[in-house]
């Protein structure tokens, strides 16, 4: 796998962290494929970045297989997969949580990451030229916040999946790592960041005293996918302004 002109597939690449990650890889000379459940968002992002795009619901097994095959046939074998797509699907105390919110969260965050890892990882292994997979998780996998238990449990499961995939795919030269942000200013957290009191309360938990921007998270993803991280696999890199120190 060369450092330049890799094929990089980013899920949830139409906005937020995924959009920033796609932009950074494209700026570095890689051939980027923006995958998003919103065809409009994927197409718009790809047009701005000079990238390719595909509409994809990562929780749909048949759709994942079809999309990954399409990428391989149209663009080339995937060298880097960034499993970024995810959601909270709502919130609330576990004893009151809507079961549909729990199921949706796990279907997208865990099942979707599994399906993408399965489809792309199998092709990477068959190709025999290595590869890199980077999963976007959350420090919530290790530090609970009331009302987000379902989301945090799904991200803890993705971290476990990251370690399992790392040890299973290592013999084929495929590295699997995670980046675990704290809260980040994205469309998904717009409610939090727009509320001055809520934002201030959260920032009091962060030693560096601010909620992250997308640009704070992107370099960690790019690094873990790069040859400079060639001896790192099964790791989860927190990008949280020190919040886990509390």
TrEMBL record:
Pfam (any one): adh_short_C2
NAD recorded as keyword: yes
UniProt keyword Oxidoreductase present: yes
Family under the similarity heading: Belongs to the short-chain dehydrogenases/reductases (SDR) family.
Domain (Ketoreductase): residue spans on this chain: 6-182
Keywords recorded for this protein, A-Z: NAD, Oxidoreductase
InterPro entries in alphabetical order: KR_dom, NAD(P)-bd_dom_sf, SDR_fam
Molecular functions (GO terms): oxidoreductase activity
SMART domains linked: PKS_KR (SM00822)
Protein name from the UniProt record: NAD(P)-dependent dehydrogenase, short-chain alcohol dehydrogenase family
Native source organism of the sequence: Saccharopolyspora kobensis
């Amino acid at each position: 796998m060369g450092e330049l002109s890799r094929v990089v597939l980013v899920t949830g690449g139409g906005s937020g962290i995924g959009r920033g990650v796609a932009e950074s890889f494209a700026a570095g000379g890689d051939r980027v494929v923006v995958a998003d459940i919103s065809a409009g968002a994927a197409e718009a992002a790809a047009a701005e970045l000079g990238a390719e795009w595909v509409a994809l619901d990562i929780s749909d097994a048949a759709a994942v297989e079809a999309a990954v095959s399409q990428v391989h046939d149209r663009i080339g074998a995937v060298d880097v997969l960034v499993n970024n797509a995810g959601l909270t699907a709502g919130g609330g105390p576990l004893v009151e949580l809507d079961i549909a919110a729990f199921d949706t969260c796990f279907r997208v965050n865990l099942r979707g990451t599994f399906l993408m890892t399965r489809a792309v990882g199998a092709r990477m292994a068959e190709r025999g030229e290595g590869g890199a997979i980077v999963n976007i998780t959350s420090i919530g996998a290790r530090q609970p916040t009331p009302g987000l238990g379902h989301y945090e449990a799904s991200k803890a499961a993705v971290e476990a999946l990251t370690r399992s995939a790392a040890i299973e795919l290592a013999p084929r030269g495929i590295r699997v790592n995670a980046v675990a942000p704290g809260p980040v200013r994205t469309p998904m957290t717009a409610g939090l960041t727009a509320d001055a009191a809520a934002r201030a309360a959260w920032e009091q938990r962060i030693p560096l005293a601010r909620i992250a921007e997308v640009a704070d998270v992107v370099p960690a993803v790019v690094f873990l996918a790069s040859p400079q991280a060639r001896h790192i696999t099964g790791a989860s890199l927190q990008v949280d302004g020190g919040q886990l120190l509390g």
